[in-house]
Amino acid sequence: MIKILIVDDEQVERDGLQTILDKHFSDIVIQQAKNGRIAIEVAAEFEPDLVFMDIQMPGLSGLEVIEKMKSDHPHIKFILVTAYATFDYAKVAMGLGVVDYLVKPSRVKEIVESVENVISKMISERKENRQQQNTLEKARSLFETDVVTQLLFDHVHEVHLEELMDMLDIQATEEKFVMSLIVPDGFESCYTAVKEKVSSTGSGMVGALYGRQLPIVVFRKPDLSFRTQATLLSREILSLSRSSENVEWFIGIGKVYSSIHQIRQSYQESLIATGDTKIPARYRFYEDLPALTPGFDERTNKKNEELYFEHIRNGEWNEINRNFTELIDRFEQEGKKLQQTQQRVMELFWIASRILSEMGVDSDIPLYSFQSTDYRQLRAETNQLLERMQRLHEEHQSTLEADTVQQIKQYIIDHAHEDISLDAIGREVALSPIYISKIFKEQLGVNYIHFLTECRIEKAKKLMRDPAKSLKEITFEVGYHDPNYFSKVFKKICHASPTEYRKKLLAN
C-alpha cells in the first residue's frame, strides 16, 4: 500500500489529481492538504510515501514545506507541481532531492508515468533495505559471538563493546556476569532458540558453542537482584530443552563483577559451577559451591583457580601434575575419606576437559574405570588420566603449522570486507575460535577484532580519495552494514568523523 499526500491550495487541482491517481493505480491511499502548515501536520500522522507539492501557496511555500518534511521524514519522495517552469525552482528542487517536476497543466500520461517511476523506485529501495537489514542481522550475530569470545579470553576493544551495545539494543550496565550452558550432542538445532531467548531480554550476549558448552554474558538489570535475574533467565533457557531421561541441559552461573576485565573470572566460575550436573534445579551458582580446596581463604582459592585455568590453557603439564599431587597429598594427610578426595579430583579433571574443549582438543570427560580402594590406586589412576590428557593436547599442538598466525593474519587482510568471524577463520585453519584468539594476541600483540577493524579503516581511508564514491558505498565496501556504526568506529579510531576526515584529505 502506497500512501500519497496531495498539497495544493486549489481544491479543483487536488480533486483532479486524486481522480487521475485513483483511476490508474490500485493499492494507494490518498489524503489532501490545502496549505503547507496543514500538510506538515497531516504528514506527521499519515506518514506518506509520496507527496505532490504545489510551490505557490499562501503562507509557507512548497519548497519550505519540502525542506521541513525532509528533515522530519527522510524517506518521503516528492513530485513538485507548479505553473512556473523556472530554472531557479528546478535548481532548488534538485537540491532538496525532489524526484520529479511537473508543470501545470500536466497531461494525464505525464502524471501516470511520473508516479509509476517513483513507485518502481520505492519498491526497489524497500527490497534493497530488506536485503541490507537481513545482511546486517547476520553480521550482528557473527560480531556478537566474536565479542563474547574476546570478552572471555582477550578483553575486547572498548570501542567495539560500546558500539555493539548500541547496535544490538542491549542494556549495558556496569555489573555483569557469565552463565555457562552445558548441553548434549545435537544441541546445534536449539542454538538459535537460545540466542533469541537471551536477545529478547535485552541484557545478554551469546557466544559460540565450544564442544558442549555455550557461554552467555549477562548485564545485570538495575531493577532486579543478581540472583533473581540469573534464576529467571536460567529457567527460561532451560524451558527450551527437550530433555530425555538421561540427557539434560545444565547452567553454571559465575559471580557478578563491575570491571570488564573480570568477565573472564566470572566465566571460569560458571564452568566450575557445572561440575556436578545431577541436581534437580539444573542450574547452580558458583557462590553456593564449597571451595575446591577447603581450608584456604577465598582469595587464595580464587588465585589457585585462576592459575589452574592458565596452566591448562598454556599446556604447563608439570604444574598441572603438581596441582593434583598437592591436592591428593593434602586430603590424605587431613584424613579425608577416599570418596571425597576422588570427587574433588574428578572436578579438577572435568574443568580440564572443558578448557581443552575450548581449544579444540577432543577430550571426553574422563572417568575412573572403577572405584579406587586406597590412595595408592587413586594416584595411579590420576596419573594415567593426566598422561592421556597431556597426550591428546600434545597431538593437537603437533598438528599446528609454524606459520598459522601469519595465515590467519593474511586471511583477515584478504577477507576484511566480508562478514568473517572467528568461527570462519577456525574452519579455514582447522583451529578453535578461542585458540585463534589466544595465539593471535600472544604473537601479534593486538586482539583479532582490533586488527580486523584496522584493516577496514585503512581500506576506507584509501577509498575516500575517490570523490565519486559516497560514504555509504564505502561503508558497505569495507565490510560494515550500518553507516552510523561505521561512522562511530571511524571517529573513535581516527579522532574525526568520515566526513571531516575526507574533507581534509581532499583539500590537500
TrEMBL record:
<dbReference type="InterPro" id="IPR041522">
    <property type="entry name" value="CdaR_GGDEF"/>
</dbReference>
<keyword id="KW-0597">Phosphoprotein</keyword>
<dbReference type="InterPro" id="IPR018060">
    <property type="entry name" value="HTH_AraC"/>
</dbReference>
<feature type="domain" description="HTH araC/xylS-type">
    <location>
        <begin position="406"/>
        <end position="504"/>
    </location>
</feature>
<keyword id="KW-0238">DNA-binding</keyword>
<keyword id="KW-0804">Transcription</keyword>
<dbReference type="GO" id="GO:0003700">
    <property type="term" value="F:DNA-binding transcription factor activity"/>
</dbReference>
<dbReference type="InterPro" id="IPR011006">
    <property type="entry name" value="CheY-like_superfamily"/>
</dbReference>
<dbReference type="GO" id="GO:0043565">
    <property type="term" value="F:sequence-specific DNA binding"/>
</dbReference>
<dbReference type="InterPro" id="IPR001789">
    <property type="entry name" value="Sig_transdc_resp-reg_receiver"/>
</dbReference>
<feature type="modified residue" description="4-aspartylphosphate">
    <location>
        <position position="54"/>
    </location>
</feature>
<feature type="domain" description="Response regulatory">
    <location>
        <begin position="3"/>
        <end position="119"/>
    </location>
</feature>
<dbReference type="Pfam" id="PF00072">
    <property type="entry name" value="Response_reg"/>
</dbReference>
<dbReference type="GO" id="GO:0000160">
    <property type="term" value="P:phosphorelay signal transduction system"/>
</dbReference>
<dbReference type="Pfam" id="PF17853">
    <property type="entry name" value="GGDEF_2"/>
</dbReference>
<keyword id="KW-0805">Transcription regulation</keyword>
<dbReference type="Pfam" id="PF12833">
    <property type="entry name" value="HTH_18"/>
</dbReference>
<dbReference type="InterPro" id="IPR009057">
    <property type="entry name" value="Homeodomain-like_sf"/>
</dbReference>
<protein>
    <submittedName>
        <fullName>Response regulator</fullName>
    </submittedName>
</protein>
